[in-house]
Write a structure and sequence with these properties.
CATH superfamily of the largest domain: Methyl-accepting chemotaxis protein
Largest sheet: 5 strands, antiparallel
Mean pLDDT: 78
Low-confidence stretches: none
Radius of gyration: 64 Å
CATH topology of the largest domain: Helix Hairpins
Distance between the termini: 49 Å
CATH class of the largest domain: Mainly Alpha
Oligomer: single chain
Number of domains: 3
């Protein structure tokens, strides 16, 4: 009964799944389409509410513009126009009298309102229960080119509890009014709720219809499945035993029906009997093979698609027999080769160990050279920096020498001027001496009256002689100074040339040291690269040595395994190549 119930379940599930799946897909499509339609209608209703208040404000602004045009045309006064405008805003209604308008100024003052208590109120800083500065938001929305929407909480007319409201505001420039009107969400939701109820009802009808169709279809599927599964319950139970490996139990009773059910029972009997014979023969053959006997003949007659099984059994026995013969023939060669490989790998391992030691010594030497090259490069950079500093100092000395040469020239020019002054003083002393002589002559002529004047003249003469001697000594000193200045100027010029030459040599030396440093760095990099390559070679050699040692161990193990293989081959009874498997 379990098998029959399982078949029924599968058939019912298949039919029910197809039926339910089709209905679900159709229902889903209907639901999506209907949902889109109702959502579209709701969306249109929401847009319609916005359009209604926007159109109402635009129409009111148009009426106000007409009223203002009457003023500009001179038909009414400005005060009459304003009063008319206030009456228009205050008394205009729409949507069955539920919709009203109000106007605010830019500073938040309520200009016009259906509730006269609100007119003149300063509401710029007023907030609703959610903290929104709703008057500011209205003014901001009205400053848009075509007006704008805002949302806030405000009581309905005649009520005290605030309700969420959506408003539209537009700026009327002639009076500086922000004209607004709006819809309460309660009113909008009430209209939308009606559509939502219609949508829910339609969805419920679709769901109930789908469930009814699925139940009826499932019941029909269950009845048909019972009629199909009952005739084959015996075959199903027997095939289940066969699937569990039971080939000895007798086949299910044969059905006398001529339809597919009877054919199924007869085919099941044939299959079971044939499988029984094949399995018994295969078991017998595998038992002989497991005991090492490759010579047992096949006696069972295989038919139809079972013939490849017979061929496979014979091929397996022949292949296994040939493989064992080949293994037997190769085992001896493997043993000899294993011993040869073992000796060779030991020799290779020894040589690899020696190479590893040599490479490590070379690697150590190259590492030292690399470190030296790096140190030379660093010292070259330090030397270049010191030369650069020395060059700067010599260049500074060259500038000082130039200043010294200029100062020597100034001293030379000054000594020349001093020479001119000493010549002038010497001339004055000569003239003074002459004047003193003339004074002495005149004093002698004056006799007793000119004695005092003669004393003065004598003192003047003596002073003139001393001035002449001093001038001569100064002239000698000036000439000596001029000679020293000339010699110093020459020495300074020669020193300046030497300094400039030293600067050029130091710059050349700096460039050479920099080149040496650069070459040392390049050598250090090359040596480092060589060091890395030798390290890689060392790793490879070490790996080879390790592999060679492992190979030697494997060769010994291979020899031992070959001996085991000989012992195992002795257990088989093989057919030689000159014999046959037929």
């Amino acid at each position: 009964m379990n098998c029959v119930f399982g078949l029924k379940k599968k058939l019912v599930l298949l039919v029910s799944t197809l039926l339910i799946g089709s209905i679900v897909v159709i229902s889903a499509i209907s639901y999506v389409r209907m949902n889109e339609a109702y959502n579209g209608e709701i969306h249109e209703m929401q847009n319609g509410f916005d359009t209604k208040i926007q159109t109402a404000v635009e129409d009111l602004v148009s009426v106000l513009q007409v009223n203002y045009q009457r003023y500009t045309d001179g038909e009414i006064t400005k005060q009459q126009a304003i009063e008319n405008a206030k009456d228009i805003v205050r008394n205009t209604r729409y949507d069955s009298g539920n919709g009203y308008f109000w106007a605010d100024s830019a500073d938040g003052t309520c200009a016009v309102h259906m509730n006269s208590k609100n007119e003149g109120a300063k509401r710029y800083n007023n907030q609703d229960e959610k903290g929104n500065y709703y008057i500011r938001n209205l003014i901001t929305a009205g400053n848009n080119k075509n007006g704008g929407f805002t949302e806030f909480y405000y009581p309905k007319p005649g009520e005290t509890e605030a309700t969420k409201k959506r408003a539209f505001t537009m700026f009327f420039k002639p009076y500086g009014w922000y004209i607004s009107t709006g819809n309460y969400y309660d009113d909008m939701n009430a209209a939308i709720a009606k559509v939502q109820n219609e949508k829910t009802m339609a969805m419920t009808i679709i769901l109930i219809s789908c469930v009814g169709i699925c139940v009826i279809g499932s019941l029909l599927a269950l009845m048909i499945a019972a009629k199909i599964s009952k005739p084959i319950s015996g075959v199903t139970n027997r095939l289940k035993l066969l699937a569990d490996g039971d080939v000895k139990t007798e086949p299910a009773p044969i059905s006398e029906s001529k339809d597919e059910t009877g054919q199924l029972t007869r085919a099941a009997e044939s299959v079971i009997l044939q499988l029984r014979g094949v399995i018994e023969d295969i078991t017998s053959q595998l038992k002989e093979v497991s005991e090492g006997n490759m010579t047992a003949p096949v006696t069972y007659e295989y038919i139809g698609d079972y013939i490849p099984i017979l061929n496979s059994i014979q091929n397996i026995k022949e292949s296994l027999n040939n493989t064992l013969l080949t293994i037997e023939s190769s085992a001896e060669q493997v043993s000899v080769s294993a011993e040869s490989i073992s000796s060779m790998t030991q020799y290779i391992a020894s040589g690899a160990s020696e190479q590893t030691g040599s490479i490590e010594e070379i690697s150590s030497s190259i590492g030292s050279v690399s470190d030296s090259a790096k140190i030379n490069a660093e010292k070259s950079r330090d030397a270049a920096q010191n030369v650069e500093k020395t060059t700067a100092s010599i260049q500074e000395s060259d500038k000082v020498m130039e200043k010294l040469i200029k100062s020597m020239g100034d001293i030379k020019n000054a000594t020349g001027e001093i020479g001119k002054i000493t010549s002038l003083i010497e001339g004055i002393a000569f003239q003074t001496n002459i004047l003193s002589l003339n004074a002495s002559i005149e004093a002698a002529r004056a006799g007793e009256n000119g004695r005092g004047f003669a004393v003065v003249a004598e003192e003047v003469r003596i002073l003139a002689e001393k001035s002449s001697d001093a001038v001569k000594q100064a002239e000698k000193l000036v000439k000596t100074s001029q000679g020293a200045v000339l010699q110093g100027t020459g020495i300074a010029s020669e020193m300046s040339g030497i300094v400039k030459h030293s600067v050029e040599m130091m710059q050349s030396t700096e460039n050479s040291i920099l080149d040496i440093g650069k070459k040392s760095e390049e050598q250090a990099e090359s040596i480092t690269e060589i060091y890395d390559n030798i390290s890689n070679i060392s790793n490879v050699v070490q790996t080879n040595a390790s592999s060679a040692q492992e190979g030697a161990a494997s060769s010994k193990e291979l020899s031992a395994q070959t001996e085991i293989l000989y012992n195992e081959l002795a257990k088989f009874k093989l057919i030689k190549k000159e014999d046959s498997f037929d």
